[in-house]
Specification:
The chain is built from 10 helices and 5 strands, in the order βαββαββαααααααα. The protein is α+β, with helices and mostly antiparallel strands and about 270 residues long. The chain is globular, with a radius of gyration of 19 Å.
Length: about 270
Amino acid sequence: FGGKIGGADGRYPDEAGRYHLYVGNPCPWCHRARLVLALRSITNDEIGMTQLVDDPVKASRGGWIFSQTNRDPLGSTDLRELYDKLSPGFTGRCTAPLLVDLKTRKIVSNESSDIVRMLNSVHMGKKNSKERIELYPSELAKTIDETNAWVYELLNNGVYRCGFSTSQGAYDRASADVRQGLQKCEEILSKQPFLCGDRFTESDLMLLPTVLRFDGAYSPLFKAGGVHVRLRDYPALFAWLQRCWDMDGVRDTIDLADATSSYYRQ
């Protein structure tokens, strides 16, 4: 979809109360978007949010439905119906996170990395948003982009390549990537508090959902990195996780027990 709030084309103005984000608790890609809202103190009045329920039996396509307690403001029963309303004729995967313009009833984006980047730059009509954390400072942009690339390849995607590999060779390669990624994190974080230096950035945000789910799902279920790999094997990475967990708002972005148990219900 490729839209951007506050973009040069003017399609999606940077204003409060206009946009709505749909997320699912178990999904690490959705978790990225929730983390941006929490860490940048973007309120529900500025960008609304609805939590989807993971139910592939009831969902017509895509696995996500709305519940009695988490209704769709546009009146849909599941995510496929919402996609059909906003983008008639759409035949792709009905995925979340999903960022929607309620005013024009258009999909802005369903790509988590794009949503993270654009929500980092929104002001929501406020002239001064300096109090909000800056996740992509210009002086670290190159480092963040490079870090994001290997975090995705080795860890974000690596754990899933382990879990869904269809041959021993594919699993071995993916598992080696996960171990390489964990070791790279360990080496970096043994020298500095965060991946790109002394401050929490977009790269830490991209890594956090994967690490939070590692011991509960990716390691025991996907055998990611090997049968007995656990976060306690990487003390600097584990200390980083605690540091991130203690940041204001982070704990409220996930029900960890529900998120990890969801992998076993598939």
